Amino acid sequence: MQNPPVFRTHDAASRPVVAIQHPDDVFETLFQSIQGGEQHVRPPLELRPDSPFLTFIEVGYALRACLEDKSRRDYLVQRLRPHVSAIIGTLPAGLQPQGMLPRVPAPPGFRPLEQIGDAEVRAWLVEDGGLIYGELQRHELDNYFDAIAAVIRPGGVMVDLGSGLGKVVMSAALAFPFQRCIGVELIGYRHAMAAQRLHNLLALAGKALAALPSPLTPETPLRLPFGGEANGSHLLDLASRIAFIEADMFRVDVRGASLVFMYSTCFGPLMDALGDKLAREMQEGALVSTTTYPLTHPAFKLLCSYPAGTLAWTNVMLYQRAGPLENVVTTAATTYEPDPAAWEERLRQEFAAMDDRVLK
């Protein structure tokens, strides 16, 4: 990992693939096909009795009611202020117009905020942060692959916790000789979109491979986009090498993973619990990468760290699971605590801006 590459600072213009002449053309066609997921429309959660998000919706409705009623905003600030460490930004994303709370009236029986405890409010804020969607742009993901290429070995399993629309999983399966790449996503619509994008990718791969002047065989030597060596089965077996699971990342065992990827920018309040989970489940030598927030569990050794504005828009860290867990001394939990007074001042400014927009 010495002599880091010179990182790209923006997405280059896509190279038009006008004809499939070489496996490199197949790779480029497939990489281009899985860009742009950050622009997708985010549908609201479904308000139905069996929804796994029913409690989230109920608490969200109670918070939103206080936001919309100016006379209750002081009470809203009072309830949110003890939990600023769990809020991404200033006003929780779920309470903003683009949030995922349903836009239909609350059903009978939903509690007002006065009947909802502080523990439920904090849990709602943590879950709300996890619903925020973001992904690395292509040049950032290319930078990331350049940075980790030297420590990726043939075989192994890559797992993306919070895989969204599947861009990182599908890109990693193309870029590296992983035996399997798995995405874990809790939000149903995102999982469904990832599955559809994989279906589209496989259909496009079939057409691109069929267009090659010389048929690709399982034994055909391939040079992978980020420097590794493979053979034709790398592309021919894509369908068996990529999988998406709709599940809570805390309930998926990652003991077989050689690399766990987390776009963890919205996972701040979860990082200690994630570190503990990964320390218990991962094998010595396995790798973990995070964004924005460090992994502070002592079972992980930092291999490299890239400041915001170099590899990506935010910090990116790569760790290795090191040493038997019984020899690790657990440190105190990490806190992510912004200044509550500064947060409240920003929030009240947002209230005023919201009211100005309504008047206009």
UniProtKB/TrEMBL annotation:
It comes from the Bacteria. One of its GO terms (biological process) is methylation. One of its GO terms (molecular function) is histone H3K79 methyltransferase activity. Residues 132-198 form the DOT1 domain. The keyword Transferase applies. It holds the Pfam family DOT1. PANTHER family: FI06469P, METHYLTRANSFERASE DOMAIN-CONTAINING PROTEIN. This is Histone methylation protein DOT1-like protein. It comes from Duganella violaceipulchra. The lineage of its organism: Bacteria, Pseudomonadati, Pseudomonadota, Betaproteobacteria, Burkholderiales.
